[in-house]
Amino acid sequence: MKYANRRRTFGKKLIEHPVIHLKLVHMAHQIEATHNWLENIVYQSSCMSDTEAILKLGGAIAGLKAQSTTTFEFCTREATQIFGGIGYTKGGVVGAKVERLYIDVRGYSIPGGSEEIMLDLSIRQSLKVHQALGMKV
């Protein structure tokens, strides 16, 4: 936000361009949705025994991991777009953090299971829980 307030393009601040508003609001929505999902899982697990939480929430946790990495990748890509060329500059003061995140983002998503593996685990666990509880699938 600081950079978008300082940087001027086409005679106005970057933050004043509607396309930048759209990028920022989409990033905020993704982050808020992921954070709310996390809070929901934490609340549910606090109301269950450890064993029950593992059995019932494993699928949701796998889905949350996939959503978290998707959100991280999306926000990193959008931030890089906002920063433009300076977001790719190695060692630059302004865009250094964005550049580092852009490089590292894929490395954060793979340990513990790739997105596809987590989504598959999520649906399989959810189906097992529904069947165990006698719900129709």
From TrEMBL:
Point out the signal peptide segment.
Answer: none
Could you confirm whether the keyword Oxidoreductase appears in this record? Answer: yes
Q: What biological processes does GO assign it? A: fatty acid beta-oxidation using acyl-CoA dehydrogenase
Which Gene3D superfamilies does this entry report, sorted A to Z?
Butyryl-CoA Dehydrogenase, subunit A, domain 3
* GO cellular component term of the entry, any: cytoplasm
Annotated Acyl-CoA dehydrogenase/oxidase C-terminal domain ranges read 2-125
Q: Tell me, what is one Gene Ontology molecular-function annotation carried by this entry?
A: acyl-CoA dehydrogenase activity
UniProt keyword annotations, A-Z:
Flavoprotein, Oxidoreductase
The record's annotation in InterPro entries points to:
Acyl-CoA_dehydrogenase, AcylCo_DH-like_C, AcylCo_DH/oxidase_C
Carries keyword Oxidoreductase? yes
Protein's name according to its UniProt entry: Acyl-CoA dehydrogenase/oxidase C-terminal
Q: Which organism is it from?
A: Tuber borchii
